[in-house]
Amino acid sequence: MATLPKGSIEKLLREVVGDDVPISKETIDWVNECAGELLRVIGLEANTIAENASKKENYRISQEHVMAALEVAENGLDNRTNAFLLTRRVLMQNLGMQRYAQEIQELQGSMALESQMKERIASRKAAAKTTSRDELLAEQTALFKQASLKASREGW
User: By C-alpha distance, which of 43, 36, 77 is closest to 61?
Assistant: First the structure.
């Protein structure tokens, strides 16, 4: 099973409990196992959702698939009813998976803004490539003239 860096786990625990509380190596190992299991469960669920949604053999897990996996973990939407799944559902609800889903949605919103900015820049560059040299020179001359008029009005 994959594990996270123990230093990171200890740092996160220190943020929660404070520096004055001793944390044993066994506690760090146990939290690391729990975090690894959580990632494994969410990853497997996201993979299953992505695989079922895909029409091709090759597919990618997207943010929507992870969000759906968190929703499954939060609400226990699987049809299987053995004790392990019931326990997992109760644990996931107590852990507050909805908080993670909200954080992902916030990040997704900021990433959408970033991608819009990149698209604008790319479209400007593409437009500049299609503009002839004479048009660019005329635009530059007009901008210099505009700046000169503004400077003379403001008394530079």
Answer: 43
Chunked mean pLDDT (size 10), the chain, 156 residues: 84 89 91 87 89 84 84 60 48 61 76 85 80 86 94 88
Residues in Cβ contact with 105 at an 8 Å cutoff, skipping those fewer than 6 apart: 67
Q: Distances in Å between the alpha carbon of 74 and those of 46, 152, 153?
A: 13, 65, 64
CA distance 92 to 100: 11
Angle at 107 between CA 102 and CA 110, to 5 degrees: 130
Closest Cα partner for 38 from 63, 65, 69? 69
How far apart CA 151 and CA 149 sit, in angstroms, is 5
Closest-CA residue to 89 (of 58, 45, 57): 45
Query: For the chain, how many helices (H) and strands (E)?
Result: 6, 0
Structural domains in the chain? 6-154 (1.10.20.10)
